[in-house]
Amino acid sequence: MRTIGRLALGAATLAALSMAAAGIALAGNFGAVTFVDGTADPPTAGEAREIRFSLLQHGVTPINDGTVALTATLPGTDELISVPATNVANGEWAATVTFPVEGDWQVRVTHSVFETSPASTLAVASAGAAAATVAQPWTFVLIAVVALLLVAVSAMAIVRSRREAAPTGSVIRAG
């Protein structure tokens, strides 16, 4: 009977140690992703955009090794993009991606060893929206030119009206 008790105690101890070891092994397999640059302004469809992100083990220790990719999918379509990322330094990575069409893309970083953060939504603007944004500074220039022309025309009208109202230089005397 004592032998069965010892075997049960040994099996329970072995199971507890196995679960503890598995918990320790799994605790190191998460890489937290934080986008650093390239996502603040919406990218434009057809435009190459560098996206930088940090990859930190449990949000603390920089991950500088492994194979990292930036993947993007457009829900409701079969659009899928996957581009390799390059380690910049100190847990920061960069990937250059060109979104083929506008829409709300689901962007996710994948790592060859670590499980990473869930996908984030990134709005991609249409190519026409970019042209309107580029033309906006010219709109301000055009408004300034029109305002200057209006000031010049107004000044000329004032000068002309003063000339017409001013007395002429010749005086007629009776006498």
Verbal overview:
The protein is built from 2 helices and 10 strands, in the order H-E-E-E-E-E-E-E-E-E-E-H. The protein has 175 residues and is an alpha+beta fold. It has 2 domains: 28-125, Sandwich (Immunoglobulin-like), CATH 2.60.40.10; 127-167. The strands form 2 sheets. Strands 1, 2, 3, 6, 7 and 9 form a 6-stranded mixed β-sheet that branches. A 4-stranded antiparallel β-sheet has the order 5-4-8-10, with no helix packed on it. The longest helix is centred in the C-terminal third of the chain and has 39 residues, at 127-165. The chain is rod-shaped and about 150 Å long.
Please write out the topology.
Blueprint: H1 2-27, E1 30-37, E2 48-57, E3 61-62, E4 68-73, E5 80-84, E6 86-89, E7 92-98, E8 103-111, E9 115-116, E10 120-124, H2 127-165
Parallel strand pairs: 1-9
Antiparallel strand pairs: 1-2, 2-3, 2-7, 4-5, 4-8, 6-7, 8-10
